[in-house]
Amino acid sequence: MIEAKNVSKWFDGQRILYDINATFETGKTNLIIGQSGSGKTVFMKCLIGLLTPEEGEILYDGRKIRNMNNEERRQLRTEIGMLFQGSALFDNETVLGNVMFPLTMFSSLSKEEQLERAHFCIKRVGLENADKKYPSEISGGMQKRVAIARAIALNPKYLFCDEPNSGLDPKTSILIDELLSDITHEYGMTTVINTHDMNSVLGIGEKIIFINKGHCDWIGNDKNIFRAKSQSLNDFVFASKLFQEVKLVLEREVESEK
Amino acid sequence: MIKSIKNFGKYCLFLVQVFKRPDKWRVFFKSLIFEIDKLGVDSIPLVLIISLFIGAVICIQMTINIVSPLIPSYSTGLATREILLLEFSSTMMCLILAGKVGSNIASEIGTMRVTEQIDAMDIMGVNSANYIVLPKIIGFVLFVPVLCVLSMFFGLIGGWFIAEFTTMISVENYNYGLQSFFNEWYVWYGIIKTVVFAFIITSVAAFCGYYVKGGALEVGKASTNAVVSSSILILLADVILTKLLLQ
User: Fold this and answer.
1) Which domains are assigned to chain A?
2) CB contact A243 to B (< 8 Å)
3) Inter-chain touch B124–A86, beta carbons under 8 Å
4) Which of B23, B119, B125 sits opposite A84 (nearest CB)?
5) What is the largest CA-CA distance in chain A?
6) ipTM of the complex, rounded to two decimals
7) What is the pLDDT of residues A203-248, one digit of tens each?
């Protein structure tokens, strides 16, 4: 479990995050949602430790990041897997090389065992025929899957995903969402996904944290997001024409229930 | 001024990160061989071509401009040798390499930064500065003496071609000039300078690339900054080293 307690962040005197309190539960897909520029990426970077919040604490299973020395931080990082918005694959390595990278750097496995683990991860994301290809030779969706394979290579306890569906078509987005949800439950990881894709919210939003202008405005799940009272959340959720139609249907249902 | 001091401090802290013990020696040595090949061996053709032509040009210039009954005819070979050994094969060659190697390093690392590859390494717990930059610095510093000696040799060959294939100076006079008043220390002086310059080129370029913020435009700017900064620092270091080593 990851906890954020009263997290605040400033950049050049401008406050970006305001006392955010949130808990990310183990074995669940925890989503951080919000408009572009709302501060969700900054919040995620604070969670990972890439940025240090000026106020507040981040705790990984009770361990405060702020109190950790370099060695403890290094150890924590080996427990974290990260999927970046642009995949962040190493251009000069093949798919297999990318997945092998964390294993080569941190595992005590033999070369054969490392290869076996890498092939297992590649197979798990359904790319067994692409292991010799370079990132530039595969599609965006495949790159995301390679990044997932690399992220899970060391069996991490925590998985972070920054907008995993950006730039992908709806069908591939659903595949990526399902894959993330499956591996979260399979390995009992604490998965934190940063997104503004409503399909992801409804598909895998076991816990949802809504960030608006640096404030945590609402916490819930995919079951109760349509019934939320938060105006800013409703503005965000029902922004698209499709969801405006959904809203009308819901309102009609409520009226008929009355 | 304050910005420059801040940048210098940042550069020193960056070097502290770079010169830490590699996480895995096997991975480091693999990267080292790769960088020696990419930064050093791949620069050989450029060094050979430029040295050959500049050696020839120096020989022609010396022959044309040193015309006096008081100056012996073998001075052309002597002057060509001294110019190549003292300045061209170390300073000028490194200024040229700052363009090739420096921009290559800055743009490569800058691209890794803007595509979040460096962030990915940091999150995995890899010391990215050490992993990416150390093999480049060590690789180029180790190989640059070879480039320097090759440049000296091929520069002298370039001058010899002028003596052999033109009537400007005889081969005998040129060869005699090359062998006259030879001071072995000048070769070491050139090599020591290139090692220092190689360190400046690789570390400054890596620093410029590592701290890029933004996108493709900033990567281009970082690449330009790397070449300009390392060129100025090379010239500054040249003055200091010349004073220290030749006086």
Assistant:
1) 2-221 (3.40.50.300)
2) no
3) no
4) B119
5) 66
6) 0.78
7) 888 899 999 888 888 898 888 887 778 888 888 877 777 777 777 7
